[in-house]
Specification:
The chain has 400 residues and is an alpha/beta fold. It contains 15 helices and 15 strands.
Length: 400
């Protein structure tokens, strides 16, 4: 296992604290492995194995567990007289799990860690039974920095080689980075991840009957990631195939995809009006290879993929992200965190877009950091306080 220090540093400070630690994110992003890492850390610190309870709910061994009460009773039967550390993987299929996890916290001396891959574990969905008693840690596919760390751990790293193109093509699923797969194998595996997520977290849960239409909407969003969204454009797209959906169903489908962590919204922010706008948001994909797995690799869509990578890096680092509107000009990303902001423009290279990318940032009259990120290593420098960086170098920086 390659230690994912970024996440461990978020989780380990809460060991033995009176909070349920909940790890959420898309399937196959490495949540289960993180539980194993936390367990190993406890053993290294002297916790005995008999005081560690590990329940993997997608295992056949626990297929019979359906309710929170069932889960409570199984865990109770495994407890010892000393403090126990309880790990529950993929808890979302258990009914009323919050209530019975709370009972465990009240009734016994336990420290609890949970993973899940659906909206049932989102803060907006968790019931009042756990209010104030849990910490949510989102887990994403590998960042570019982690991708490099996996290469080093697998003894595949060559000093001086540029791995960014590999990252673009192979993405950030840990299972892919741990294996030696070619492109065809990679996209076949990711397509299986994608299908499993649709079936388990959306189609089955929401009893979707028009599966083909749901998949068409999903693929439309993947293909148009990073573009301004309009429900009318989906309706026109479906009409061209002699199909139809109403607005409410389209937005329901989009919400289901968000709840399964397949896509993330990026709302627009009016910089002058200082307000979040309710229309013309964008959507980005949890991992760019989800697009390639459905449509094949296409180098002509590189600009939108670069945006997607930057968006997800901002998500990983805990930023709240917007697309900026400044009169008629657009800023690709505004990132907000801890009362600070950064403004970012992303481009393949500056040769054809230098005036637009830089001037859009020059029009912002504030003291915050501003970046133009280019995929050309020659496009670097500083223009009136705007930092022009090679995009992979930006992704590897500890601080911006």
């Amino acid at each position: 296992m390659v230690k994912r220090e970024y996440y461990l540093n978020q989780i380990l400070p809460y060991v033995d604290k009176p909070f349920v630690k909940i790890l959420t994110g898309i399937r196959r992003s490495g949540k289960s492995t993180l539980l194993e890492m936390i367990k190993d850390n406890l053993i290294e610190k002297g916790i005995k194995k008999e005081n560690i309870i590990f329940i993997q709910l997608d295992s056949f061994a626990y297929e019979y567990l359906k309710s929170g009460k069932d889960l409570y009773e199984v865990i109770q039967s495994k407890l010892t007289k000393k403090r126990c550390y309880v790990f529950i993987d993929e808890i979302q299929e258990i009914d009323n799990w919050e209530k019975y996890i709370n009972y465990l916290m009240v009734d016994f001396d336990v420290d609890i860690y949970i993973t899940g891959s659906s909206s049932k574990l989102m803060p907006s969905e968790i019931s009042t039974d756990l209010t104030g008693r849990y910490i949510n840690i989102p887990v994403y596919p590998l960042s570019y920095k982690e991708f490099i760390e996996f290469k080093k751990a697998n003894n595949e790293f060559i000093e001086g080689k540029n791995y960014f193109q590999d990252y673009i093509m192979f993405g950030g699923y840990p299972a892919i980075s741990m294996g030696n797969y070619d492109i065809e194998q990679t996209y076949s595996i990711i397509k299986n991840f994608y299908n499993a997520t649709l079936q388990a977290d959306i189609i089955k849960r929401y009893h979707i009957r028009k599966i083909d239409l749901f998949e068409k909407v999903t693929k439309y969003l993947f293909e148009n990631a990073g573009k301004t969204f309009s429900s009318n454009s989906i309706i026109k797209y479906l009409k061209s195939d002699n199909r139809s959906l109403d607005y409410e169903t389209i937005y329901n489908y989009i919400n289901y995809l968000k709840e399964a962590y397949l896509i993330y919204p990026c709302p627009r922010y009016d910089i002058k009006g200082k307000e979040v706008l309710k229309t013309r948001e964008k959507y980005y994909i949890a991992d760019s290879t989800l697009k390639y797995a459905n449509f094949g690799y296409d180098g002509t869509s590189l600009a939108s993929i670069l945006e997607n990578i930057v968006f997800m890096e901002l998500k990983i680092r805990g930023y709240t992200i917007y697309t900026g509107k400044n009169d008629t000009k657009e800023i690709d990303f505004i990132g907000e965190k801890n009362d600070e902001k950064i403004f970012i423009q992303v481009c393949r290279n500056l040769s054809n877009n230098s005036s637009r990318e830089i001037e859009n940032l020059l029009n912002l009259k504030n003291h915050y950091h501003k970046y133009v990120l280019s995929n050309d290593p020659l496009d670097v420098g500083n223009v009136n306080g705007i930092k022009i960086l090679y995009l992979p170098d930006f992704l590897l920086k500890e601080e911006w």
